[in-house]
Design goal:
The chain is mainly α. The chain is 78% helix and 5% strand. It has one domain. Strands 1-2 form a two-stranded antiparallel ribbon. The longest helix has 25 residues. The radius of gyration is 15 Å and the shape is globular.
């Protein structure tokens, strides 16, 4: 349970950083809705990303992994399209802001996971 809560918080903080840094990404809502956006992002990454990565594996191999950035962008755009009907307040205006946002989310999420010891929590949980 600790892993799940920490993962959602890291997603929410990463998306909040992208909102602050990238022009074209906007969030209009209460702070707790950002946590819900982080949860939606986590669900999208858990269920859709492996499937899309599998089907785009030839492109990922041919591009030496760079196509993964496009997959991450697509995950962010799917999250935004799901947050619309849920009235969570996240908006992205165009592909390039989504691309920059996905890149920032990936980097911030990696750094926060490293700082919080998220991998250790995941591995200790299974023992």
């Amino acid at each position: 349970m600790t892993y799940l809560i920490l993962r959602i918080m890291i997603n929410a903080l990463s998306i909040a950083v992208a909102v602050k840094v990238v022009d074209g990404i906007a969030f209009a809502g209460e702070w707790w809705k950002m946590i819900l956006v982080g949860a939606v992002f986590g669900i999208v990454n858990s269920f859709l990303k492996p499937l899309i990565t599998f089907f785009t594996l030839p492109l990922i191999i041919l591009s030496l992994g760079l196509f993964t950035l496009i997959v991450n962008t697509l995950m962010l755009l799917i999250t935004v399209s799901l947050s619309g009907p849920l009235e969570l307040g996240l908006q992205i205006h165009g592909f390039w802001p989504a691309f920059k946002g996905a890149l920032i989310i990936s980097v911030v999420s990696m750094v926060l996971s490293w700082l919080t010891g998220l991998k250790k929590i995941k591995y200790n949980r299974s023992n």
